[in-house]
User: Fold this.
Amino acid sequence: MHIADFDLIICGGGPVGLCAAGLLARRGLDAARIALVDLKTPEQAAADPRTIALSYGSRQIMEELGGWHGVEKTATAIEQIHVSRRGHFGRTLLDCKDYDLPALGYVARYGSINQALATATGGLGLNLFRPAEVVALAEEHDHVAVSLQDGRVLRATLAIQAEGGVFGQQQQKGVQRDYRQLALITHVHADQAVAHRAFERFTDEGPLALLPQDDGYALVWCVRPATGERLLALDDGAFLAALNQAFGERIGRFTRTGPRHSYALGLNAKPGRTQRVVAIGNAAQTLHPVAGQGLNLGLRDARVLADILARERTPEALQQFHHRRGQDRDLTIRLTDLMARIFASAPQGTPAQALLGLSLGAIDLLPTARGLLAGQMMFGRR
Assistant:
């Protein structure tokens, strides 16, 4: 058995794990003493076609690491976000000009983000174990031992769990909820598209998001499972007609669609705390995609954890991290969970759904409320 000793082991080489490793190295931690383990090769990670909404705050984190330039070349800026209810009163419009910013966020491919961060951290001297599978993680009184599938064992003072996965394939955490919704994912085109404007449209079954990307939109349509299965089975023409019916005609008619995929939606958050292992990103909280907060919350985790561990790497430092991240995490979880549950479980036309419409109208009329919503989406609770 080969045993290698490090100061820190990071399990998960996606954007959150790479950010944590890179920021720690840039804050003075010896990169050679950081082990990063991931099941995928860099080439496999770079080929991931999923679409991600990055907040402006996430751009700032990636700029600090030197990884933003590689994303910016192919990302589409979100300058406005239109939030509304289909067929009901209540809407609000968030505009980057109101906050003196070039964009509220950006739409990018997950693989492009991975590749840019891998390039930004590539010259730091990190110890990379990829492809490598973690089969066991044992916490001892003075170290953590991470066993790999090939028989190697890595030991360190602390370990960061940044390998998130998707809902339904994770171990249950302290708070778990099955929303009984599917997210239907595809790319669509419309004949009256509005450049750089994203839409969050609340329907009777769940939120429908259109994110500007290239010359069309990345669609994330959350519906009940039976509806999702029916939509997946439709031919393209019938699917576009159903989408037109659900979204309305704010951007004209939908004209083209790409391949459709789906995944189950749920909340899985608040893992148990231990002395020497800390979870960040999806490993700590898997959220409903409403408002696109998942990865952005994880990148904020990585930045704060790097700030703390650059000063000391002790169990007490992990407790400090939990304290500093508590408010942002709890608020984001509560907001996304509330919006998801209103549509996942409330019958159509209930007071809860009507209240959301009234709230959207109030937000549009009150600049302070609109600013609080925009601030939470872009930067989180600080």
